[in-house]
Request: fold
Amino acid sequence: MKYIALVITLMVAVTAPAIAIASDSITLRRDITVEGEQITLGDIFSGAGDKAGNVIAPSPAPGKSTAFKAISVARYVQSQGLEWRPATPVRRITVRRLGANISQQVVVDQLRAALEYETNLDLFEMSLSTQNLNIKVAADEPQTVSVENLYYNKSNGQFFAEILAPANSENGQRIRLSGQIHEQVLVPVLRQFKSAGQEIRESDIDYKAERASKVSHRVITDASML
Reply:
């Protein structure tokens, strides 16, 4: 009996520290989102205490998600001396990185400015091959872009550009875009109908931008000729 009692005492002494280490229970968060470039233990679990800042993995791109096998996360948690017992079976843990959309107008404005400088044209119509750009940056980054490279084909008006988001950033996203521009001219038009012989004043004239390729030699481009 004394031998059995001694064995039980030793077992308790050996297992007690392990129980103490694993006594810090953590809880899986719902709808896990991050803002920064790294995913930490505290991003995924509540109650991680001083282990909350431990980095688990790099974050996905802004607006994107990444998934981890629950068993792999559980092993990491255990190695940190924490205990995670999910109330329901969990196979994968998904983490989404928050992002801010850069409006298409911001991109268009920067491209137009770069094309004006490259082509020396003041008036032109511009179209992009991609209509829905969906460019995202991190929630704490400026919603800006810069045109890093630009090639313009004067013969057909096509252009190819590489933009950087956020603007001038060292580790930003590089997006390739293409499109076409058409040179325009201002054509004078009457604001309202005038009968033959009626005087046409400057206040009666408005101007409409038209593609230069569609304006024939018969079209009046000088308001004084109206």
User: Anything to note?
Assistant: The radius of gyration is 33 Å. Residues 102-225 form one domain.
